[in-house]
Structures are given as C-alpha cells and as structure tokens.
Amino acid sequence: MTDDYALFGRDDQLAVVDTALSTSTPAYLMFEGTPGAGKTALLGQAAELAAGRGYRVLRAQAHPLEQDYAFGLVRQLLQPVVAELSEPARAELFGGVVAPAAAVVWPWAGVPADAPFAVLRGLYWLVVRLAEQAPLVLVVDDVQWADAASLRGFAYLAGAADDVPVSLMVARTTGMWGTEEKLVGKLARRLSIVDVAGLAEADVAAFAHAVFAREPEPAFVAACQRVTGGNPFLLRELMTSLDERGTQPTREAIAELTEFSPQRVSRWVLTRLRRAEPGGAKDCVAVARAVAILDDGADLPLVATLAGLAPDVAARAADTLTRLGVLRHGSPLRFVHSIVRAAVDSEIGPSQRRAAHALAARTLTARGPAERVAEQVSAHLLVCDVIGEPWAVDSLRAAARIAMRRGAAEPAVRYLERALAERPGEGVRLGVLAELGRSELGIDVRASVEHLGEAFDGAHDLPPELAPDPEFVMRMATDLTIASATNGTWSMACDVLDRASAALAGPAPELVSALQAFAVAAGVGIPGFPQADRLARLREIAAPYPGSALMAAVLTAHHLSSLGRSREEVVRLALLAREAVPAHTVPGLVAHMFGAIALYRADEFDSASEFCDVMMAGAPVLGQPLFAEVGHAFRSVVAFHAGRLADATGEAQAAVDIRDGMLGGSPLPSGWEGYLVRAHIERGDIASAERVMAAAGPPEVWQSTYFANWLWYGRGLVRAERGELDAALADFLECGRRLAEHDVLNPAEIAWRSRAAMVAYRLGRTDEATRLAAEELDAARAWGAPRAVGMALRVMGQVTRDADTLAESVSVLENTPMRLIHAYSLFHMGLAHHRAGRRGDARTALAEANRLADEYGSTRLAEYSAAALERIGGRRPNAPRFGADALTAQERRIAERAAAGASNREIAEELFLTLRTVEHHLTVTYRKLGIDGRRALPAALAER
Question: Looking at the structure, do residues 69 and 184 belong to the same domain, yes or no?
C-alpha cells in the first residue's frame, strides 16, 4: 500500500483547501492532528492543487534540532527562488525596503545586519514582489518545531498580506511541543484551523478493504478503529502486520488486536530492525539511532561517523532500513514518519545522546570554517555536555553573529550563554560577556546591563599585560551606557563613562573625548546634572578631534534649546549632526538624536524628521533599538504638531512597544506614553488615554529623565478631562518643577504653564492663570519659535478674554505647518468674535477651525467647533464629503504619489503602509473626488 493511505477519509479537509484556493483572498490554513494523522500528505495534496491552479508553491519543513536556526524556515522557502535569479534580477529584487531581507535569504549580497522589525518588513515586501510574478503558496510542515524568527515572519505575513496573492498553509502536530510554543499559538490564532482527526469507521472499512483486498467484517473494523483511534499511520502499521501474518479481517482476528497500542509502536519498529539480514541488525540499529540524533536530513558520511561504522557498512545498513520501511528512499536519510523517528529516539539513553551530539559537533567542525558550519555545530553543542575546548566557543560565537546579522537576538543569546558555560579563558570570557550583553539590548535590557557590567568590571580588573584594547573598552562602555539609560539607571551610565575615561586617559585621549561626550548626553537623565560645566569642559578637550567637537556642538545646541535661548544658533549647531561620518555609528546616532530634539523645539520639523529617519535606519544596522524607539517618539511629536494625529498615535505606540520589547516584557515607562495620551485625547479617545496612563503605573516607577515629565503632563491631561481640576493642576505644576531640575525651561518642549493656566482659569483662579500665561508668553517670545509663541498667545487671550491677543496668535501660526494648533487659535478667536457680537467673523473663523479639525482628525476640536457654529447659526456643519477638500492628509499624500505614476506597492513601501491600506485610501479618494480611477487623479487634484 502506498503513502496514499494518509488521504483516506480526508475529503472534508481537501474541500476546505479547494474552497480556500478558489477564493480571491489568500488562504491561511493550519492542519492540526496527532502524529500519523496524515497532515503531511494533506499539505502535499494542497501543494499539488495549488500548483495545478497556477500558484508557485514554496515548501519547508521544520526539525527539532534546527529550532535555533534564525529564519531557518524562511530560508528554506525563499532561498531556492532567489538562487534561480540572475545577478541583476537579484539586485533589483533586494533594492529599497527589501534590502534588510538579504541578511536572511541572500547574505552574499553584503547587506548589513538589521533589526527584527526591519527584517520582517523586508521579508514581507520580498514576498510581495515575488507574488507580483506569480501567486504564492507557502507550505510549512511540522511548524511546532519552527524557529522563533520564522514564526514571527509567518505571523507578520498573515497579519499584513490579505491584499497580496500569498497563501500560507502549515501543519502542526499536537502533543509535541517545541521551544516556541507561545509563538506557534500566536500564529495559530491568525490562521484557520483544519482539524485532522482520526478516521470514522466507514473510512477505516475502506482502508481495510484496500489492505486486505476483501470486504472487512464490521466488528473487525470497529475494533481497529478503537485501538488506533482511526490514526491512518497506525492503521497501516496494524493492518499491514496482520496481512503479513495471513490474518483475515474477520471477527476472529479481533483477539490479535489486543496486543496493539500506539505506545507499542516502538517495539514494532525495533522488531523490524532486528529482522535485518543476519549480522546486520546491530549496524541497522546504530544507523537508525544516528539518523535520529542528527534529525531528518542527515548525510551518510556523518551518520557513519556517529554510528562508528565504515562508510560502505553504513550505506548497506541504510539500504536495509529503507527496504524495511524505516527510512525513506533517496538522500539525505529520513525516517518514513515522525512516529518511527520517535520510536528509535526513545531507545537512546540520555548519556549516549549527549555523547553522540558532542561527536556530531566535533565532526562537523572538522568539515570547514567555523562560520560556514556554525549553526549546525551549535545546534549539537546546545544539547550535549560541556566540551571545554576553544573550537566550541568559536562556533557558538560565530552562530551568534549569524543570528544577529539576521536580526534574531534570542538564538544569539542562547548560543552565547552556552559559550559561557564552556568556561573560556578570562580574556575570551570578557568578549563573550560583551557580545551577550549586546545581543540582549533589544530583548532584555536588564540582563544586558548585568552582563555588560560584568564584562566592563572584569576588563578593569585585568593586570596591565592582559588589558583589553582601548577600542574594546570604548565599545563596552558605550553599550553599557545605552543599556543603563534604557533601564533608567542614568547615574550608572555616567559613572561607567567616567571610569572608562580615567582608564583611557593616557593611551587614548581621542576616545576619552568621545566618552565624555556620551557622559554629557547621559546627564540629561540626571536631575541637577551640571550640564553647563560639563559642556564647557567637553568643548575644551574635544577641540582637537573633529568627531567629538561635532558632538560637543550638537549637545550645546540641545542645552541651549532646553534653556530656550539663541534659537538661530541652536539650529545652526544642531544641523552639524549631518556631518557625522558615517552617520550609522553610535556617536553619529547620538548626534542625530540630540539634534532632532533641538530642531523640533525650533519648529524645524523637516530637518527633525530627517534626523529621525537617520536614527531609525541606523539603529538596526548597529543593533541599537534605543535609537529606533527615540526616532518613533520624535516622529510622533512632529506628526502631532503638524496635525497628523493618526501618525502621531501610531509612532508613539511604536516607541512604547519597542521599549517594552527591550525590557523583556517588564515595562518601565519612559515618557512616550505621555505623547500617546495627548494624541488619544485630541482624537476624542479618552478611554484609550486612561488605559495608557493606568498601564504606566504610579509616579514612583517613572524614570527621572526630562522625557518622563510627559507622564506628569499626560496624567494632568487625563485628570483635567475627568474634571479633577485640582489634581490636574498639581500634575502640571509638578511637571514644570521637575523640568527645571533638568534645566529644561523652554515651553517648546512641554507647554506645562499653558495647561496649568487653563486649569487655574477653570478653577476661578484668574490671577494665577494670568501669571502662568504671562510667564509662558515671555519664555516663548525669548525663544521665538512660532509654535510656542502662537500657543502662548492663544492661552493668554483665553484667560484674559482679549480678542487682539487671540488674533495675534492666529497671525503667528497662519503660514506655518502647525495647522492643528492654528485651528485651535481660530476656534478661540471665533468665540471671541461671537462675544463681541461679530457673528459673521465668528462663523468664518469657526468654520475654518472645523474644516481643519476634520481634515487633521481632531475629533475633539471638530466637536467643539461644530457645536459653537450650531449655537451661532442654528445649523450644525457637516464635514466635506466630496472634492479635494474632503481628502485627509494621508489620502492626499497617497493620491499625489499615485497621480505621479507610483504603483500601489511603491507607495506602500515609501510610506511604511501595507498594500491593503493604500488600496483602501485610494478607493475612498476616488469616491470623494467623484472619479473612476487612477488615470483621472492628476486632473482631479489639479482642480483644488
């Protein structure tokens, strides 16, 4: 009987596949069942059905020993496709947003390492581009053994690819658990589960008829169904064995079934091994056990070594095992079924298993350079006893480097932890600790601080003749600083930098100047830090060194912007960060980070956004997710002030998510939550704002940096919305007090006085409100940025009810990118006109405020202005539904790119959207513009 036995009774499951492949949307299926239920056969049949309908089918199979191969399954799926391409076609395929995926699929392209999200996004767009050539079906067997990185990739695809012709079909064996069960469960929730249960009696009867070539008696069928649970593989084993004995499928044969149970399959398999030709049974057992140790796909020379046999003897035993139905035909060597593999594996003792894995690691190491075989060797090292030899540490470190290049930190951490267990010499141990701490930066920053700190302390304790290279000390100190800052221990960061500076003062003065620049940067997290004095000293020692001098200039820009002084000088100095060469170094990213802060305070939004893009591009290259976190946060600030509230919400949430990921799921509020609260409230989503603040916890767990003052500000906003005015005022005043401890006096950072003034005004404390508003206006005028001045003028006009001040606010903001802030000034000026009896002017101002609020997504202001217009004119306005004025900012951006000839994919790649989102926006745009499609866009947009 052929392998077709596995498809007996599977018409229902095949119908699900047929239906899924017949629809216009991608199929996301997970076949679930016990070992032997026929999942692999179903996947194979699904692949044939897909290929027959014009799909390109890509297949992969997971194995237990490969669960630490970063993106191992993704490579199985995609690498053969990429290998078929010409060099120019590959270069085009990996261009732009897809470039990070090359580190996974085609590392020979020389693309630098990247971060998990960038790699996932690159892989998504790689699949999209391939699907443009032909619809794809990705088929993955034994997904329970999948590596974490591949599972994240599949989950990302299933969550984002409804708009492209890419189907995903996987098989999962129940009762078997790999190392990433949570991720398997997450993927399962995104797929449609197809249950592959035991066969019904009617199917068992058909099965028996095929084996015995005669009609089975019902009692026999029922007994077979009962003892096997209807499992097709077990049915075949049972019935084939009975048929070989000459047993017929009758009631009388039921007595012979009593000795059968699924648990006794091991005995059946071993009995079959002992049926080998005389003298060959021992060799067959040795080869079978070697294949079980090496996992499916073992090559014969390695199997021979593990089995302790000559190559020709091992080959003869393998042929015997194939004839006996234990191994499949062909090469490499594979068991006919996972049940058979498990049966053989169960007979191997723990000590024998560990020794075999150690021998496999040693044998593989001898085959070539550590980098080429590192993952294979390390897979065995992870499950054997300590080797205690340098080559083991070398292989594990090489495997960790490979994983980090692919943006997969978890396996890198496991490899390096095992490398430490190998008890390397002190000098090598410090290197392993430093690499381990660096690998942990993106997934467990607390562990990163511990390991980097141990490496740093150890380097200082070494005798002079063993002292590490100054560059190594510099790298350790830099990584430890970033880890400490992420963990909220800013004082520790400064201490580390000062200690490293002292150690390198003699041999490396240029490195000392760079370290001191980092120390000044870390000082922003320390209340009362003597920024002015440290900056003056830094400028002096950095003068001879261009890189450090540039850092000193940008940090000076940041400090001046904190004080709210010398705006033109601040912009000039901040823009020097562009001269950081290369930008994708840690000093270069630090320069761009502090430059971005100074620039957004100065209303230089385009340049600030450019600096954010540099940070977000460089963070993955260096494996430093902190800069991606900060880049998202500052993009949220820029988006908010420009009125792009949906973008502001998404960017702030991305910053919070990255931080949570770095902290290993144990959140430490940073301040970005305050950005998120502000955006939620502006969009009218008070409930989400309250949830964010609740998740941030009490002030006792907040960090001490000035960024964390956004939490005080956010809590004040939420309390004001609830009507808890005294508590809100206290939060805004505390925010201001803490900002002053950091020398942050510029209202362009946080306009806390304006908020406090408005709450005091609502409490009837007019004098206090006026004083706070006046202080804010003085500080804003001293700084001179339109945003800060316009906002301060508006609040002063509100608390003094002065229409001229409100009109000045409108004038200051009128020709700036701050459209939403301008809309608020228009709204309050409209109210002032109404109080003065100027109804026509009031309606004009309020209508424009309403239009801008609707355009930029401010539900809050749209409601306020609509209600005010209703009170004045008796009719509540409707948001424009047709014409170019009805387009949101995002719809307009997409429409303009489409009108210029960009494809949906090009637009999605450029704007960091999915194809589905682009298509949705274009559909809405066509409706609003009253056109049929893309060709009419240029003319419709030109009519604005």
Answer: yes
